[in-house]
Every structure is written in structure tokens, then in C-alpha cells.
Amino acid sequence: MPVFIYSLSYADGCEWMLLVSTLIPVILGIILGHIVQGFRKIFGTGVAALLLLLGWNIGQG
User: What distance in Å separates the CA atoms of residue 38 and residue 28, rounded to the nearest whole number?
Assistant: First the structure.
């Protein structure tokens, strides 16, 4: 949703490819996380490292 709101500030309107390229991995991850129980164990341990990298990326921008 923030990507959509941010893109509305441009005069050209919404960049749909940006919105789609953001939503597809999120939706795919939600679906796979619910279907395959092993994904929770594999990727659950990496959440702390991902949060660290996410905070660093947000701080840079």
C-alpha cells in the first residue's frame, strides 16, 4: 500500500509494474508459508538477519 500511495505523488500516476513486482513475492511467500510447513522452519531463523538488513536499507534511503 505505501508503494501505491508513493506512486500517486508522481504526475504520471501509478507505476503498475512496481506495484506488481512488490506484491507477487509477498503473496507467493504467504501462500508457500501456509502450504509447505518446512518453509517456516527454514526461513524462520533468518528473520532477525533480514530485519537488520531491512533497517539498514531504510536508513540509507
Answer: 15
**Could you give phi then psi for residue 45, rounded to 5 degrees?**
-75, -20
Distances (CA, A) of 35 to 2, 26, 31: 27, 14, 6
- For the stretch 15-39, pLDDT in tens is 678 778 888 988 998 888 888 888 8
Number of residues written out for the chain: 61
Instruction: Report the 10 Å Cβ neighbour count for 4.
Output: 14
Three cell numbers at 14?
Answer: 501509478
Q: Which residue is it, cell 540509507?
A: 60
Q: Is the pTM of this model over 0.85?
A: no
Handedness of CA 2, 17, 56, 28 (dihedral sign): positive
- Do 4 and 19 touch, CB atoms closer than 8 A? yes
